[in-house]
Amino acid sequence: MSVTRYSAPLSHPGWQLAPGLTIGLVLLLVVAMGLGSMVVTASSVDFASVLNSRYLRGVVWFTVWQAVLSVLLSLLLALPVARALARYRVFPGRSLLLRLMELSLVLPTIVAVSGIIGVYGRQGWATGLLNDWSPGHSWNLYGLNGILLAHVFFNAPLAARVMLQALETVPSPRLRMASQLGLRGWWLWRSVEWPALQPVLPGLCALVFTLCFTSFAIIMTLGGGPAATTLEVAIYQALRFEFDFPQAAVLAVIQLAICGGLWWLVLRQRMESPLLPNRRLAYVVPLKHSAAQRWIHAVLLVSFSLFLLLPLAAIASRGLPALLGVGGASSLYPQLLPATGRSLLIALPAGFGSVLGALLILAAAGKARGRWVKAIPATTGYLPLIVPPIVLGTGLFLLLKPGLGNNAQGWVLVAFINGLMALPFVVQVLRGPLSGLDTNSRQLADQLGIIGWYRWHRIYWPLMRRPMALGLAYGIALSMGDFGVIALFGSPGQPTLPVLLYQQLGSYRVSDAAGTGLWLLILLITIFSLLSVIGRPPANQRVSPSHQAVPVPEHA
Amino acid sequence: MAIRGTSGSGKTTLLNLIAGFLQPGSGTILWNGQPLHQLEPWQRPVTSVFQEHNLFEHLDVATNIGLGLHPGLKLTKEQKTRIEQTLERTGLGGVGTRMPGDLSGGQRQRVALVRAILRRKPVLLLDEPLTGLDPEAKNSLRTMLLEEKAQGVTMILASHDEEDRKLLADQHWNL
User: Fold this and answer.
1) Is the pTM of this model over 0.80?
2) Distance, in angstroms, between A553 CA and closest chain B CA?
């Protein structure tokens, strides 16, 4: 009997390893170059004198303080919400609320800020109510109040989703046991909830802390003065207004040290912290509860939904007239359309790049052997969390100073950094489905000779279409909403949508700003729905009709 | 040939070694005097049917079988009709476009066996292929296996079911 040798295209193992390693190395190199130029610039400064500066210490102190407060408040709100959602798996509007909570990840900060101003700002709805109730109040959105409010708006849903996911991984026999024993309150927490939450908490805290620590748009718009300046904003001011490059470099080094140190601590425990939740089917296990508890939970969930919905409603109600040109306002579109073009020009390459990069990096991560080779793809996926985009931007800015008159170069850089920023999220979306193939299926594919290109085309592609479309949508959305990197590299005369929105907010053209915000929001929703249609498998190949982000075999 | 042994005695390990999913620490695996153990799984003259997870859940039945004939699904007309005919002959007519999740356990195993048969490999590795099926499904699968045996295919069956081993095997081996 002869032995069959199939020659599947691209079946050499090197094809899985080399491209991902190359990309990883190039990314690491670019980041190293950026950081290097930053450190070189920073080293020309006398560190001791900088560290003694009162301004700088104030900035660092405020940055850490607001981030810590934001983490605490977000988690404190997220915990009861997650518990309530885990407890009540079936009620009208639950899936809508979950969708709403997912929105906060892709909602551009600057859009949300314009909505928050619409609700809690000087002329906001809530402020109006407060004025009626207690006329002498001293509520002021701008400053620490606004920063915390916006951070909680963004991070409480994120934290609640991660916690909910952790709670939903509790095996149902354990829940049934708890139900049978009639556990509630403290003992339910100790026996079921805390063990499920505890592994995700360090990563979650680190994630929320990093997001608040490096938040830019929120501080720029709601900070309201030098008293509430964070490192990120200070870097931007040093680079773009004071042209004090060494100062910017020193600030970026401090920022890097704090973020990098934090993630090093978290990742050292070899913990895969979930950035995005998987959606899965939940089964109902009735747990013991009192009637009062039910009411408390209902009130909690309703107010949480309102908290998330009101700013969106504010954008919609103020933006719609502006977009439709009601009331004789001058048309927005001459400004809006070019800005949309510029945004897409940056976001599309960034999105596609991040998906391609994530796939290659994941393939290489699966194939890599040896400690150092393995480290390359593993680090690349987390790089943007350890090295915040603005730090990287600062480094590359310092490196490429001479070419800054050149717009094309700036845009390529923005697209590159935006793509890199999206990488951890896209990696997170794709990792599960890519490694989700069970051992038997893999062995079977081996035996049938389905390797190389054939394996990708026949086995992975049908499984990966949906997650890839989702990853692409995330990548594009994150880049479309980016305000930090573009502020650093872009020119005010040629704004992208978020920059345009910032300019409108800055010149108090509130209804124009709402119009731009609504436009950007509609654009993002369109992108997501378009890609979810494209990512849907043909009708006869649906594994199950449920809304699962990750298709899982129906039997185990 | 039937292999018998209590669970954990290494029946599956042995089959995985032959198929190339595991690498032997030492020793050689020969087939007709040719060493097999250095070949990749897709280069070996074997085809397997496991107890479960034989099919790719996200691909329809025809694709699942077709991939066994060419790993890139580049099939000739003749191969396509042969798939149709074999499905028809084994009482699976018309399920070609169905997804594995829509089939019963017995049907899924029959599809897996059809693929193994159509691959025309000299060695058929069976790892508890009938375990957990209802008697009717068992019977139809046994018939298919006996037909294959009559064609001269070498079968290696790991099973702890006395009846299966007696019916299907000429030689018995204890682990």
Assistant:
1) no
2) 6
